Amino acid sequence: MQMEDPNLAIRPDFTSEDFADACLQLTNNVVNDEQVLRILETLWDIQNAKDIQRWNAHRNEEAQIARDHAEQAAKELAQQQHHMCEEGEAVLAEECKKNKAKYAPVPDMEVPSGPVNIPAPYATCKLKKGEYCEPCFFTNTSLAEVESFNTSVDDKALTLLKSDNGQHIWVPASNTRDKLAIIKDEDLSWEQFSEASVCLLSAMREHDWQQDRIDMHVRFWTALEEHPWQHSPCDHLK
Fold first, then answer.
1. pLDDT of 49 above 90
2. Phi, psi (5° rounding) for residue 229?
3. What is the pTM of this model?
């Protein structure tokens, strides 16, 4: 197979001295010099066309072989990857059998939206009005006490109470009892403040407080939670 591309070959100059002997041998009484040149050029063109045909056929063959090799390599690689995937799945399946708890499916469930913590009636009334309500009503202890009340019995007992407009009205005794259970902020522990802040925030949202009020509440409690005294090992700072 020739090394140079015949498509790039240039017809030689048959009038040069390199071809003088060839022209002389072809010249006779019937064929003159001009006819000899045309014969040589025609022969060269015929041979070059054959060379180009063989060259292109060989290149096409090489390209097809390269494509076949590439396809075979791709198939082998796919088979290897499939085999490795099957091995990995087998190992994972065996691991799942040995450690079932580790690979147990976790259901994607929404967070419960129903009420969880119900504060005392006094605190609920304050929230509905948008008034300040003491944090002590939202500690875990206070909320647990509210759950233990039997409202069907407590609400039967009435007591006389002076309303905001100065009139005296009869209200359930549980409402007045709530007022008596108020604990001052300074008497609450850091832990109770943390409990109350989360529950109070949820209650504010449930009673449709303005967003800027809720944001202010979040910033206030965040500042308290991040204060150095909150994390101090000294009890007197807490």
1. yes
2. -60, -30
3. 0.40
